[in-house]
Amino acid sequence: MTGRTDPATGRRPTPEARPAPLMNNSPGSQTSLRKRNQQRVIEALVSVGASTQAELARRTGLSTATISNIVTLMAKNGLVSLTPTTSSGRRAVSVKLLTSNGTVAAGIGFGRRHLRVVLVYPDFTIAAEENVILEQKYDPRDGFDLAKEVLTRLLEQTGISWEALSGVGVGIPGSIDRRDLMPVIGTVWAEWAFVDVVVELEDRLGVPVVLDNDANLGSVAETIWGLHGGATNLVYLKVGSGVGAGLILNGKPFNGATGVTGEVGHVQVVPDGQACRCGNRGCLEAEASVQAMLDRLSSVTPIQSTEDLVRAVQAGDVAALRVIEDAARLIGRVVGDLASILSPEVIVLGGPLAVLGDTILDPISRSFARHVLPLVRDATDIVASTLDDRGEALGAAALVFHQAAVRVI
Fold first, then answer.
1. Which run of H or of E encompasses 176?
2. Which domain holds residue 91?
3. Cα 200 to chain center, whole Å?
4. Count: domains in the chain
5. Is residue 406 part of a domain?
6. DSSP structure class, residue 175
7. For residue range 281-296, what is the model confidence (pLDDT) as tens digits?
8. CA 387 – CA 222 distance, rounded (Å)
9. Residue 407 falls within a domain, yes or no?
10. pLDDT tens for each residue of 268-283
């Protein structure tokens, strides 16, 4: 796309330096600015609850006149309630976010062969969701068009207006460079390389878009909708066509300096092993991802898909069970190394193999125990996610309501 790279540096502009996206309704720049200011107000209300307009001005850094205009429009659209009150002995207006028929965030999760869209209220109640099966190796731009169709359908079904949509969170299967919000080559499928996800979707949807990878979003979802929401140090391990980890450290998502964190799939586990898409050999992803398992089985069994693999394991197929155990042993070793450094309270296995439960957790745990100190072993739970394939989309919606977003909005 032209105009996206700074000729002086050879890099795309930072998120803060990007121009506001063109919106579906004009004038584009004014609508974009209003949406972004409204999002700042929503984040403040989610964080501290009902607030006066003066308090909102202090928290957001917006002028009192701007706050007054924003909350008046939000009240007109049924997003907030305005109640007379007093503050420091003076008359004021208390602003309260409405969740029953008010603002929502959308989460879009792109998988290898599926697309999930969810609508979530600020209190994290799920308003609606839909999952769509896609063709293998689909064009991401076709996925963007379909995501807009599904999102439009969900808004219509729930009676929620586009004006009430405060933003859209998006998850893709690969790391994101936080400096320019572009997929990191070598960690994503070839179809996603050089695709400007944020710009493409903002052009289509006309609302602010935040972006992160699927594993990071899965970790966020686990702290809200999972069974271990009380954990302040959590690792979400996504094992699918790739392998990645999302990290919650001291109660917050950890993204590092560039956003490339938790890439356990590119830790070498077999010297001179299978070639990996990152350019190295013997990476965990090349040896223990679902695709690696399918490749090993394809020459000796009729197993061709993830669904076939799950069914074969559940039916007790000897070859499938051996492949699962071999992969689990490598996975356990790597997460053991990770736990020795981070000492998480819980490691949550996500992805399509989580449904196998103890069949995959037991060999992971045995390998894990051999590679950590007894204290770390005893203090770390290894469990399967209960969110199925919903975690990434749910986590994406949560980003819209949290400062953990990878983009300043």
1. strand 176-177
2. 22-97
3. 18
4. 3
5. no
6. -
7. 999 999 999 999 999 9
8. 8
9. no
10. 999 989 999 888 999 9
